[in-house]
Amino acid sequence: MTPPPAPPALPPRKGRDFIARHGETVFNAAARLQGDHPHTPLTRAGFAQAEEMGRALRTTLGPAPALTLWASPTGRALQTLAVMAEHLERDWHGTQTDPRLVEIGMGSWGGRYYAEVIDAVGPVVTPEGLLRPAPDGEDYRAIASRVSGWLADTADDDGDRLVIMHGISSRVLRGVMTGTPPHPEWGAPIAAGLPQGSLVMIERGVETVIHRGTGGGPA
Known about the structure:
Layout: E1 17-21, H1 26-29, H2 44-61, E2 67-71, H3 75-88, E3 96-97, H4 114-121, H5 140-154, E4 160-165, H6 167-178, E5 199-203, E6 206-211
Parallel strand pairs: 1-4, 2-3, 2-4
Antiparallel strand pairs: 1-5, 5-6
Helix pairs in contact: 2-3, 5-6
């Protein structure tokens, strides 16, 4: 099978992008598919993971760094950012949100227990830790398109950015930013998975892991 073409090159970005995966939520702890569900609160473990990322980023950047704060508009991303912003001595109220940063839309599978969906349709998590798209959900090319749009719109912004996202959508964003070849089955650039509570820095297409979290689950 001929591999899908690589996505078009994006304009060079100013500054660095610090991309974090939110902490564990009540859905993660209960093994339920979150997808683009608007609000699934963090657990105590999730808050602890946000604390660890905040400390790690403060160690890297120092107090009150010049950062633009970005987040998916979901509650779990904003909760994670609130904790991190406190560590950084930055005002959370200056956060900018964008729906293009949300998690993969899981359609009618969203909110259901993994075991229930697996019993009905078979495995939904691949060996690579990716979610199989739901028949009425979002595919990986669509995620690549929307995150690429956000990247294009913010390419000329001055300074560094802190971006709080999700397991699957952050993998696609990171894949686009680092020039990862399109996935042979899903047709979009997808970076390697990282646990919940992980934080990376991407500068000029090169990724560095700042903190590796302790959470699990694909999304």
